[in-house]
Design brief:
The structure holds two protein chains of two kinds.
Chain A (H helix, E strand, L loop, with lengths): L1 H47 L4 H12 L3 H26 L7 H18 L5 H30 L3 H21 L33 H18 L1 H11 L1 H6 L4 H28 L10 H11 L4 H25 L5 H34 L1
Helix pairs in contact in A: 1-2, 1-13, 2-12, 3-7, 3-10, 3-11, 3-12, 4-5, 4-6, 4-10, 4-11, 5-6, 5-10, 7-8, 7-12, 8-10, 11-12, 11-13
Chain B lengths: L1 H29 L7 H19 L2 H25 L4 H24 L13 E3 L10 H4 L1 E3 H19 L1 H11 L1 H6 L4 H27 L11 H11 L4 H23 L6 H19 L17
Classes of the chains: A mainly alpha, B mainly alpha.
Chain lengths: 369, 305
């Protein structure tokens, strides 16, 4: 009896595993197809501008993948996207919609810059982690506001995070023009962060930096937390079925607060590391929309660690290659945003079609049985 | 005296784009759809209004182009959220990214990279005789551009439609409980399509007024968050046209005040004053959320059967 049960259990697990693997593979194929179609549409648009789409594509490739230098530039653009992608994904896994990555990014950048400038006399080995921690906590607390408003007042995080974005960006602009402005200068910028707080380059003479490696480490942590920890399991159950989670004794409110803090912290790291490694000093516009890009990155990646890396690679390459494309072929870099919107729409609709197919198959099976 | 009149006039003038967008969003929200893509819709329409006016020589053609672009964005939104049943938030976010990319790209194709087109037909103030002679407020209220009058006249019109007609009741019932509405013979999908299209056209009218009325030029990202403020105005206005109007006026009042203060050399930084409407919204959201004024099925896709 016991043995039979064991066999049954094994078979069930194997079945779920098989289905999961098949779905992941299918999702990958569909995401790839969606990206391909979106790129094609973008090329058609470029053709309408009277620009040779193949030349544009070649320049895009050249600026993102063709050489070691461009590949490294792609990693620079990938770094913030990895963080904002994780930020959206972790909230999504808990059934939340975090649209506040852009704002959390700015708060993380402000705090990271402040720690980098005003905390003095530390060796690099301590100053850098401290500044990064500051960015994480700053962004985290800002994300926590949206979580708290939801849990304590019932305010939808979708609207509050959008509002908090503008608040954060204005706050950052205020800090850069006021309390944190570089002394004896009137430009809206802060002093550079101290050398001890700067994140080093991976290779001399390139822009690639250790922040990229840190981001990849966080991808691993992201995976460990969601899929290998009890808390992460609770978070995912809350996201899948809030009622079931409540019945099984999971404290959903606590999870929402925690996840919004973590999501904010991850987005905060995007801004903080961008300052410490790339910009060195804070200016009012440090992000060309990395926060919103996170939505697309997480969506293409199906909110999984590997998927986020691939999604960030794609959009990082677009950002890196887009500059080259604009210089070489006069294709406006804003076309990247258009393609990105196509990708989001294509991926999300193909996923729904997939679900519908699954439902139909399930129904047929039921009828047969 | 002059100061108050001037203040009121610019408050009304600057609130108009937000009012248009807010009323459009209100109609969309009342049908149960949550569209956060107003910013993108407005961005595309600001450009197309300028393009239409520039090539035809008439600002009305510009307005028409803008409204059509808005209707198309609305159709796109409705197709993916009502028919495909994709997540409304994500599609809205995609519309914002699309609008930002499309307006910048088209601008560079049509007008080139570094030129700012300023010579085209734009709206001008129309003075209403007699009424504009009323002391103090007359000049502010009755010496405005036609879109401004239109936006404020839409407030009672939409209010009447929503709360005094059968069609409005149907729309509201779809937003509250689509299943019941469906059982009672209301065509839920058609109503949602219609409201997404008409609502987005209104949002676009706000964008058109922005680039061919309030200022007469196009610059990238010129909507500058007004689409998001409109989103807030609807919530702050408790999903009622009059409320949306009040919210738009209050939100903009802070901006206008900050402009005036800045000219007079105040120590309060501009950026902090700009934050006020957003902080107000967050506070209002927290305060009113428990009252549950939003349409009950807002943001949930409806599936027949």
């Amino acid at each position: 009896m016991r043995r039979a049960k064991g066999v049954y259990g094994m078979r069930q697990v194997a079945c779920i595993f098989k289905k999961l693997k098949k779905n992941t593979l299918l999702h990958g194929v569909i995401s790839f197809a969606a990206v391909f179609v979106s790129l094609l549409l973008g090329m058609v648009l470029i053709r309408f501008m009277g620009i040779d789409p193949l030349a544009a594509l070649a320049a895009l490739y050249e600026g993102s993948f063709s050489s070691m230098k461009s590949l490294l530039e792609t990693t620079v653009k990938m770094t913030p996207l990895l963080f904002t992608g994780m930020s959206y994904a972790i909230a999504y896994r808990c059934g939340l919609t975090n649209l506040g990555m852009e704002g959390q990014l700015y708060i993380g950048a402000v705090v990271g810059t402040a720690v980098g400038i005003y905390v003095t006399g530390l060796p690099g080995g301590i100053h850098v982690p401290l500044a990064i921690l500051g960015g994480f906590i700053g962004g985290g607390l800002f994300g926590f506001i949206a979580g708290a408003l939801k849990v304590w007042f019932g305010a939808s995080e979708i609207i509050t995070t959008v509002m908090l974005n503008t608040i954060a960006m204005n706050f950052a602009e205020f800090m850069v023009n006021g309390p944190m402005i570089e002394p004896s200068r009137s430009n809206s910028q802060t002093s550079p962060v101290l050398e001890s707080a700067q994140i080093g380059k991976l290779f001399e003479g390139t822009r690639a930096h250790w922040g990229f490696i840190i981001a990849l480490c966080f991808i691993v942590l992201f995976w460990l937390f969601l899929w290998r920890s009890k808390k992460g399991y609770e978070v995912r159950v809350s996201g899948l079925n809030r009622q079931a989670a409540a019945y099984s004794g999971i404290n959903i409110e606590e999870n929402i607060l925690l996840v919004m803090f973590l999501a904010g912290g991850l987005a905060g790291l995007a801004g903080c590391i961008e300052i410490l490694a790339v910009q060195i000093r804070m200016v009012p516009s440090i992000s060309p929309g990395y926060g919103f890009d996170g939505i697309a990155v997480a969506l293409i990646g199906n909110n999984t660690p590997i998927g986020i890396v691939l999604g960030a690679l794609l959009f990082g390459a677009f950002r890196a290659g887009g500059n080259r494309m604009q210089m070489r072929t006069q294709t406006p870099i804003s076309i990247v945003n258009v393609i990105q919107a196509f990708v989001i729409i294509a991926v999300i609709s193909s996923n729904i079609l997939l679900e519908k197919l699954d439902e139909k198959r399930l129904k047929n099976q039921k009828q047969e049985g | 005296m002059n100061l108050i009149s001037g203040y009121l006039a610019s408050d009304i003038r600057m609130a108009t784009p937000i009012l248009f967008a807010g009323l459009g969003l209100l109609i969309i929200n009342r049908s149960g759809l949550l569209n956060i893509g107003a910013e993108g819709t407005m961005l595309v329409s600001t450009l197309l209004a300028v393009v239409g006016s520039y090539y035809s020589g008439s600002v009305w053609v510009g307005l028409l182009c803008a409204v059509i672009s808005g209707a198309l964005m609305g159709l796109l939104f409705a197709f993916f959220t009502v028919t495909v049943k994709a997540n409304q938030i994500v599609i809205g976010a995609a519309l914002n990214i699309l609008g930002s990319g499309l307006s910048a790209t088209l601008n560079r194709i049509i007008f080139g990279v570094s030129t700012t087109v300023t010579r085209f037909d734009a709206f001008t103030n129309i003075k209403i005789p007699l009424l504009s002679d009323i002391p103090l407020i007359g000049g502010a209220l009755f010496n405005q551009m036609i879109p401004v009058y239109a936006a404020f006249l839409l407030v009672p019109a939409i209010s009447y439609y929503l709360f005094r007609t059968q069609a409005g009741l149907n729309l509201r019932s779809v937003g509250e409980n689509p299943r019941v509405a469906d059982t009672l013979g209301v065509n839920v999908y058609r109503l949602q399509y219609m409201s997404a299209i008409i609502g987005s056209a209104l949002i676009a009218a706000g964008g058109a007024y922005l680039s061919t009325g309030l200022v007469s030029s196009f610059s990238e990202e010129m909507v500058a968050g007004r689409g998001y403020i409109a989103l807030a105005a609807v919530v702050f206005g408790k999903y009622k046209p009059g409320g949306v109007m009040l919210a738009s006026l209050i939100f903009v009042a802070g901006n206008v005040l900050s402009n005036i203060l800045q000219v007079s050399g105040t120590p309060i930084p501009y950026t902090l004053l700009t934050m006020i409407p957003y902080v107000l919204t967050v506070v209002a959201l927290a305060a009113f959320a428990k009252g549950a004024v939003a349409p009950a099925s807002l943001g949930r896709p409806y599936k027949r059967g």
